Amino acid sequence: MGLLTELRDSISRVTERLFSASEPKRIGIYGPPNAGKTTLANRIARDWTGDAVGPESHIPHETRRARRKENVTIERNGRTVTIDVVDTPGVTTKVDYNEFLEHDMEKDDAIRRSREATEGVAEAMHWLREDVDGVIYVLDSSTDPFTQVNTMLIGIIESQELPVLILANKVDLEDSNIQRISNAFPQHETIPLSALEGDNMDEVYDKIAEYFG
């Protein structure tokens, strides 16, 4: 009887591993506001499913709730990986409603939006600590990456032992400086791209399949 129980338990464990391995991996797209996270999420989703994830905007904190595109299957160089793309709100230490006033919003709308953005930061942190299997970290290569938020988030990702792919976005801009990002986080490989223009997306997909497959 003990042998049968042990055999049944062994089969159950193998079955659980097989089913868990077949489930899509939840890959969170993280980074500061206006780094191009939603543009990248939409680029990935459109290229492999034909659908977008959410609206894009030059106004900060356009994404104030995590949005998820499920079952995105990427095939690259003999590798196939199926992921759920989770587009998260931009993480920052402070959300000031005056930012939105600069974009011609009414004060009440600006205050509401700043409150929603603050709640979005908390949601993004919850996803990072509880609900993602890997991270695509998007940085604007035309701005200084060495900030408290970026250092904190990369540290949390490393402490969670999550695979992380760092992308230097917006290489189409004149002020782009990829080396600055590489210098800020030398422990990780940095991949340049323009999510807006679609530049270097082939390498991005190669790396997604390699890192998360």
From TrEMBL:
This is G domain-containing protein. It holds the Pfam family MMR_HSR1. GO terms for molecular function: GTP binding. GO terms for cellular component: cytoplasm. Residues 26-170 form the G domain. It comes from the Archaea. GO terms for biological process: tRNA methylation; tRNA wobble uridine modification. InterPro entries: GTP-bd, P-loop_NTPase, Small_GTP-bd. The lineage of its organism: Archaea, Methanobacteriati, Methanobacteriota, Stenosarchaea group, Halobacteria. It comes from Halogranum amylolyticum.
